[in-house]
Write a sequence for this structure.
C-alpha cells in the first residue's frame, strides 16, 4: 500500500491588514478584550471585489506546486475545503481547476468548516493509499470577512474570523514510514446550531424571502463558551486517537499544528497533553481564525520558518462547526 507524502505547502493571505484598533472603530470592542480572550492582534480581510475564494486557493496551490516542483498537469485530483463559495454552485474546486488549466481532473468540495482541511487530507490520503491517484492537491480557502456582522451585535464572531488560503500537494510514496500515517474524523450534528449560519439556505434565499436582511439568521451565530468547552475536550481526544493508532505519545511530536480557533483553546490543549508551546504552531496573533484555511496556512508557514524539516513528526488537529473534528499524524 502507498502512503501520501506532503511534498509541497503553500499559503496566501490578502494584503489588507485589519488591526484590533480598526475593529474598535466599527463596533464596541477593545484591543485588550480581543487579545486577552483570543490572542489575536490583527487579521487579513480581503478588499471586496479584489479577491475570490477560488482565486486565493489558486494562489496558495501555485505556491505549494512550485515548492513541490510539480506541474499542474501532474495533479490528478483536487479536494477543495471552504465553508462558503464564490457561487451558490458549483463549488470552488471546479473554479480553481479552471485556473490551474487542467480540465477533466476531478474536483471535490468539502464544507466541513474548520475541520475541512483535515477531512480533505483524509480523502486525498485514501485515494493515494488505494492506488487510485499519485498526486493530489488539497486546499482550504476562506473569505469570512464578507459574511460577518461587523456591528456590536456580531462582535463575538467578527473579531475572530478572517480570510486566507492554504494548500498541500500529496504524492504517493512506497516508504511506509513517510507521509500521512493516520487520519481520524468525527462529527456530531446534535450541535449544528451551536455554531452556524442559517441563511442563505434553499428555504431562505434572497429571491424567496423579503426579510433576507434579518441579522438573526443571515449572519453566523456562535455560542462561544459552549464551543470552547467542547473544543478543549475533543482536541485532546482526537489527537490521542491518532497517537494511539500509531504507537506514539505527545512527547514524540516535533510540531503540533492545531486549527487556529483561539489562542486560549490552543494553550489549554497543549497544557492538557503536556506539549511545550515551542512545539506548537500558532499563527492566530497575525491571521485570526481562517476556518478551513488555518491549518494548511500554518503548515506552510511552519515549513517556511524551518519548524518542519525532513523527518519531522507533525500532528494536525481541528474542531469546528458541525460539530466536526479530526486529526492527522504526518511524518515529513
Ligand atoms: C468567543 C469567545 C472569544 C468569547 O469569550 P468568552 O470569554 O467566552 O466571553 P463571553 O462570550 O462569555 O462574553 C463575555 C462578555 O464579553 C462580551 N463580548 C463578546 N464579544 C466581545 C468583543 N468582541 N468585544 C468586547 N466584548 C465582547 C460579551 O457580550 C459578554 O458581555 P457581558 O458579560 O456583559 O454579557 C470565546 O467563547 C471563544 O473563543 N469561544 C470559542 C470560539 C471558537 O473557537 N470558535 C471557532 C471554532 S472553530
Amino acid at each position: 500500500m502507498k502512503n501520501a507524502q506532503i511534498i509541497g505547502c503553500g499559503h496566501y493571505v490578502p494584503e489588507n491588514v485589519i488591526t484590533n484598533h480598526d475593529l474598535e472603530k466599527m463596533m464596541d470592542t477593545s484591543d485588550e478584550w480581543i487579545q486577552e480572550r483570543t490572542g489575536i492582534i490583527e487579521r487579513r480581510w480581503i478588499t471586496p471585489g479584489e479577491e475570490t475564494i477560488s482565486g486565493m486557493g489558486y494562489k496558495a496551490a501555485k505556491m505549494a506546486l512550485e515548492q513541490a516542483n510539480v506541474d499542474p498537469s501532474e495533479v490528478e485530483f483536487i479536494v477543495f475545503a471552504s465553508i462558503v463559495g464564490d457561487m451558490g454552485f458549483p463549488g470552488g474546486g471546479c473554479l480553481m481547476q479552471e485556473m490551474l488549466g487542467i480540465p477533466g481532473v476531478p474536483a471535490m468540495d468539502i464544507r466541513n468548516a474548520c475541520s475541512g482541511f483535515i477531512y480533505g487530507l483524509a480523502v486525498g490520503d485514501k485515494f493515494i493509499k488505494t492506488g487510485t491517484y499519485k498526486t493530489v492537491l488539497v486546499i482550504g480557502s476562506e473569505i469570512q470577512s464578507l459574511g460577518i456582522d461587523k456591528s456590536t451585535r456580531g462582535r463575538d464572531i467578527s473579531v475572530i474570523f478572517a480570510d486566507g488560503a492554504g494548500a498541500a500537494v500529496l504524492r504517493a510514496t512506497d516508504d511506509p514510514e513517510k507521509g500521512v500515517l493516520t487520519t481520524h474524523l468525527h462529527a456530531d450534528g446534535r450541535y449544528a446550531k451551536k455554531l452556524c449560519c442559517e441563511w442563505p439556505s434553499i428555504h431562505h434565499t434572497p429571491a424567496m424571502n423579503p426579510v433576507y436582511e434579518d441579522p438573526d439568521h443571515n449572519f453566523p451565530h456562535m455560542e462561544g463558551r459552549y464551543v470552547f468547552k467542547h473544543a478543549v475536550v475533543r482536541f485532546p481526544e482526537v489527537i490521542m486517537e491518532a497517537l494511539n493508532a500509531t504507537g506514539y505519545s505527545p512527547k514524540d511530536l516535533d510540531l503540533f499544528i492545531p486549527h487556529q480557533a483561539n489562542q486560549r483553546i490552543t494553550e489549554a490543549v497543549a497544557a492538557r497533553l503536556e506539549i511545550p508551546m515551542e512545539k506548537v504552531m500558532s499563527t492566530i496573533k497575525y491571521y485570526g481564525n481562517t476556518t478551513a484555511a488555518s491549518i494548511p496556512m500554518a503548515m506552510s508557514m511552519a515549513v517556511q520558518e524551518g519548524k518542519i524539516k525532513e523527518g519531522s513528526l507533525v500532528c494536525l488537529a481541528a474542531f469546528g462547526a458541525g460539530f466536526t473534528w479530526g486529526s492527522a499524524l504526518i511524518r515529513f
Remarks:
- The chain has two domains: 3-175, 180-331.
